[in-house]
Amino acid sequence: MKLSLCAAALLGLIALSDLHAAEAPSVQHRTDAAQADVPRPPMPTTLPPEVIAKAVAGMGLDPDSEKGQIAGRWFEHSVADPDWRAMLYQNGGLDLKASGDTPTYSGGARLGPEDRLKVIRLITGFASTLTPSECEALFTSRKGDDKLLKQLSAKQLDDMMKTFDVFIQTTAHAHSEPESYSIDQLLEAGSDIEARTEAALKREHLDTDPPSDTDAPGKSHDQSCKQMLTTFRTLQDAPDPTRRIVTWDLLSSPWAGTVFTHVLRTPDAFVASHFDLNRLPADMQQHLPAPGSRPLGYTKIVIEGDWENSTAEEKRTPYEETYWNLSDTGLVNRFTLGHPEKPSFGYFSTEYGYKSIRGQRISGGEAYAAPKLLAPSTYRMLDDGGVIPQPNRVYLSPRLQPVAQGVHDAQCESLGKYPASQVFKDFTGDAVDVNCKSVNDNGVTYQNREAYLYDYGISVSLFEIDKDGLSVSRIRKVTITR
Q: Hey, CA dihedral for 63, 123, 223, 205, is it positive or negative?
């Protein structure tokens, strides 16, 4: 997800350039709507030296040093300059804890396509002067870490603030026409930039894999910076409308981060708009139960747990499984998300019994494609609840189409019934385990076992075996919304 590195760099620069201005008198980062008309005391045009010194010391800098003096001047400028005040501290301002549907910098919505391109070029120029360790510190700055301030030279700090000053002035005086793009447009444009960046990295013989915690010391820093700069440069050279759409996503969208993380953090909206019953092929719908024919008694179930694998690099991986009752048909929509606190990819599917009949993976590192579907030649297996597993049976589970080359259909076997409360204490009714196994052309075996819960129409992950060995699911919490 190369675009996520660009988003992190943008947020890091904005966070650093704020220079802890919340400590200044009469400055407010967020404006409550109920207080919007309340008169405020006038903003000062100068600050007492002791206030500036205290603020600079709060940044971890010596107020008497050359760098401290530069930081102090910019700190005072950020308080006294009307454009800085308007863009950072009023009209929504800056929210470094933003996530989901809240933008980090609300002023970005004012920028038009040419303004956004100007900002991207400015930031690319500044970021290209950073060392790998400085670049890594820029990424962490979005979380309030001011490590980069300590690493930058006095000149670099001044250059950074000059860059951000142009950003602020551009935003303050921008008067663009409102823009709006569909989620599909944003995902398609984003995946286009990811693919172009991947190709550019390969041409330069640079690493295309995302940075990993297991990389050698310093490698991930260097890797992240090269990937980020290559993505920024690729974005500048991309044709419209791709460039226009992606720069809007990075700088002007009403959410934090990129559209990929937005979809992963707000799956309810994506499921409602993209995984409705009516979006299934009409011929397939004829083989499915009618809406209302099987009341399930809930609207949504969220399972929080961990995958545990003693032989993998990551011994414990948190996950979330979300299920939505699909119009009381007995079908459910399912969303699987690893690392909910820092999502990088997720999988949406529609399931009936043990079988997935529609599936779509969302990831910034992959091309955005239409959902895969059950092949029409297999629709008859859906008739009369044929995919609802019965105990001690053998089933064939055809792959969704189009299928990747070398991937074969899975062979599945159901076991005996047992109380669903053995899966987790809050579940009622009976459960049956369904064990599926497939082998690809390279001889790699994939096996997974899920418990099908009859009262809920859902399949709950129990374990899987793949190239990384055995991973076992440990459920921590279940939330059922009636």
A: negative
Q: What confidence tens digit (pLDDT) does each residue in 394-449 have?
A: 998 999 999 876 677 899 999 999 999 999 999 999 999 999 998 877 777 889 99
Count of the separate structural domains present in the chain: 2
Q: Report DSSP state, residue 241.
A: T
Question: Pick from 236, 258, 280: which residue ends a domain?
Answer: 258
CA 253 to chain centre: 14
Is residue 134 classed as helix, strand or coil in its secondary structure? helix
| The residue to which tokens 């189009």 are assigned | 402
Contacts of 179 (CB under 8 A, 6+ apart): 112, 113, 244, 248, 252
Residue type, 192: D
Same domain, 230 and 294: no
Question: According to the 3-state scheme, what is the secondary structure of 414-465?
Answer: EEEEEEHHHCCCCCCCEEEEEEEEEECCCCCEEEEEEEEECCCCEEEEEEEE
State how beta strands 300-308 and 469-481 pair: antiparallel
